Amino acid sequence: MSEFNKLSLDAVQEEGFKPLRKTFSEGGNRNNHTSTAPGSFKFKDPLFDYYKYIDYREEIYVNRLREAVAIKSVSAWPDHRQEIFKMLEWTAAWTEKLGGKVQLYENPCKTQQLDDGTTTPLPPIMLGSFGNDPKKKTVCVYGHLDVQPALLTDGWNTEPFELTEIDGKLFGRGSTDDKGPALSWLWMVEAFNELKMDLPVNIKMIYEGMEEYGSEGMFETVNELAKPGKFLSNVDFFCISDNYWLGKNKPCLTYGLRGMSYFEVGVECSTKDLHSGVYGGSVHEAMTDLVKLMSTLVETDGTIKVEGVMKDVAPVTEKEQEIYETIDFDLKNYAEEVGVTTIGEARLRHDNKKDLLMARWRFPTLSLHGIEGAFSDPGAKTVIPRRVLGKFSLRLVPDQDPKQIAECVTKHLNAEFDKLGSPNKMWVKAHHGAKAWLSSTDHPNYTAAAAAVEKVYGLAPDMTREGGSIPIATWLEDATQMNVLLLPVGACDDMAHSQNEKFDRKNMVNAIKVLGCYLFEIAKIKGPKPSECRCEPISMEDMMIPGAFARGFRCKCEI
């Protein structure tokens, strides 16, 4: 790790940073530091020096990200498991240097069994904290420090584990998913320290090293730490920055994620692969049965053909309709981004913004992923495979239960197989499943984040949902009953999980600004700490109590 010397404010000034004591600001945007309207009342933004300090330290943040990217913490590479330990220790050391407390919490699953039957140690979960003032609210941030596999031969234009800047874009595996965003919380704390500013809230951190490979041990850890008196029991708000804006320029907050149910359907026709010229026509072929079965799951227009899947999907409300109308989204740019503009008729399934976004976020989908056991290499091979497995999944929406979906899918495939009259062996296996997650954009956690984004960027964020799944959001909310905020800081073209992953330099800088501003907005929230107040929401009868409305009661314990 590079040496970090804590600077006093005087030392910072000697290096060239000078807090502007007589300049007044309306936000963190570099071009929006002063209010110049004739006759306007000028006021001092308490975070102006903070914004300026971050701008001054920009190059330092890039160099630190370069160090982090160089650590090949790929959770899918068992032979690199020690790199995950190294990345967690690197982050823990920085947390301690900045005055925080750290515990490397033993992973409750201890070891991971590999495909070859051997085992390898699972990395710990890093628990960090800054401040423990019982009068302040507590925000817990989640992040992950492991990354997806990456090789130059995969199609990268630069070495994936060497941070490379091109035109203000920082290319490197983990730059945006999720090392850059996760480490931004530390640099935010550092800035507060250097400027001698008290943190407006207590901060807790829960960082893992296996998110890209199933988060083994995290579900058990969250449920254990949420018990009374333990690490998560006094958390009032959660914040996660592990997703992305809808577009390249306008920030957003995410209030909904789809869940998932993953399946395989298998068919076996023999104990060995067979030559199609010698045996073709004499056996019932497994591949033929499987293709028939998979074709019964979904129409070419995306309509799900499995009975019972759609019965729990809630109708769209008028309020939802209004949210989609104002979202900044360009269909043409999206078509180019997903690569359909040069294929066939070059069209998407929907020709308007609202319907397309609802199809991505608001309704369930069923996708076919592949067939295991079939010949897929270049060239020709005339084989009848003995055993084939079809892989497919459904993305679920609120009110859909993965267990109930598994029952529907299994019943459907069994019925369709019976129709074939095949003597082959068929089975259905439901793999991992996760419920959808939905929050409220009216929750104080979201209004605080929206205010912070607007102050830094100069415009209100879009409120979006996503088609993907982030199970930790549901786990944290279910275990603690506290609100979880998804606060993305990267752009839609950051290419997480893909070749040439990047984090825009300007977004890296603004991320640190937004996080600090968000904490100030959280501190403004009135009322008891949510972790100490377990009241049911105020009812209309409660609001009829004299003075309730005028005094702004939020829950029964304030009456």
Automatic annotation (TrEMBL):
<protein>
    <recommendedName>
        <fullName>Peptidase M20 dimerisation domain-containing protein</fullName>
    </recommendedName>
</protein>
<dbReference type="GO" id="GO:0006508">
    <property type="term" value="P:proteolysis"/>
</dbReference>
<dbReference type="InterPro" id="IPR011650">
    <property type="entry name" value="Peptidase_M20_dimer"/>
</dbReference>
<keyword id="KW-0645">Protease</keyword>
<keyword id="KW-0378">Hydrolase</keyword>
<dbReference type="GO" id="GO:0046872">
    <property type="term" value="F:metal ion binding"/>
</dbReference>
<dbReference type="Pfam" id="PF01546">
    <property type="entry name" value="Peptidase_M20"/>
</dbReference>
<dbReference type="InterPro" id="IPR002933">
    <property type="entry name" value="Peptidase_M20"/>
</dbReference>
<feature type="domain" description="Peptidase M20 dimerisation">
    <location>
        <begin position="255"/>
        <end position="417"/>
    </location>
</feature>
<dbReference type="Pfam" id="PF07687">
    <property type="entry name" value="M20_dimer"/>
</dbReference>
<dbReference type="GO" id="GO:0008233">
    <property type="term" value="F:peptidase activity"/>
</dbReference>
<keyword id="KW-0479">Metal-binding</keyword>
<dbReference type="InterPro" id="IPR051458">
    <property type="entry name" value="Cyt/Met_Dipeptidase"/>
</dbReference>
